[in-house]
Sequence to fold (306 residues):
Amino acid sequence: MHKIIYRDPQVTIFQSALFQTNSTVVCTEDVVLVFDPAWLPDEVEAIRQYVESIRGDRHVFLFFTHSDFDHIIGYGAFKADKVFMSKAMSENPDHELCVEKCLEFDEQYYIKRPYPIIYPKGDFLVFRDGVQYRYGNTKMSFYLTPGHTADSMMVIVWQLGLCIAGDYLCNCEFPFIYHSSVDYEQTLEKLPRIHDRNWFTRMVPGHGDPALNINDWLQRRTEAQAYLFALRESIATDVPFDEDSLWSRYQFPRLQRKYHLDNIALMTREYEQGLWEWDPDFELTSPMLQETYISGAPPVDSDDEG
Ligand SMILES: [Zn+2]
Fold:
């Protein structure tokens, strides 16, 4: 079984039955680009066959947005002409653990695959923001986006106005912060700058629905910021975080509560280490959202004073 959730003449998004994980295939006149092929063996095989059916004599380039095991598990099924990833992903000191997680997952569900599970080997390593790669008329630019993991990156395909975002701005997940909330915040902050240099309208997150216009992904960005800042406020000032609001937005509390609690633990450690400070005067573009997660927060405006 495989599911295609979006299709236009050049872009096809496959979505796994597991965690709504997205795998994007882009076909230009020059080359076929495959991003994070995932997840179950039949799903990976469907993506592979689709790529074979459209490639003609084009080269196939494979991209990994980060090293989480769900995103690399399909690597061994593809014979790519070039593999793109961040330098940090290529040098991930825990790469054996990523492979181990794939193997653990497969064994847990008695899954057999017709290809080996191996850690992706990169040919083109992105080491700084704004690196570009051109192949014929196909031009891509790359940005480092640490925060979710240390080795996350985003890719923009220029002529299609398409950004492959990795595990950011997923409409089915609040921010999952495995690496650093400080880096996560900076990644969210630089998105409009990345946009201004590259003019993408559509954004495909690692999980959930693609954002098909600028307002959609800007709104998701504001929501992610609101979550981060509300958590910070809650940790720094002991104001309770309103979990009910969180679960009215996100539909999988039985799994996701663990990620929320992990975020709190990680950000509490960061706070104790002095990695961030709470700035009560900070205002989000949309202050209403910031209040969403804080119960009994005082009104932001104080018109009645003075
Ligand atoms: Zn993911």
Remarks:
- The chain has nine helices and twelve strands.
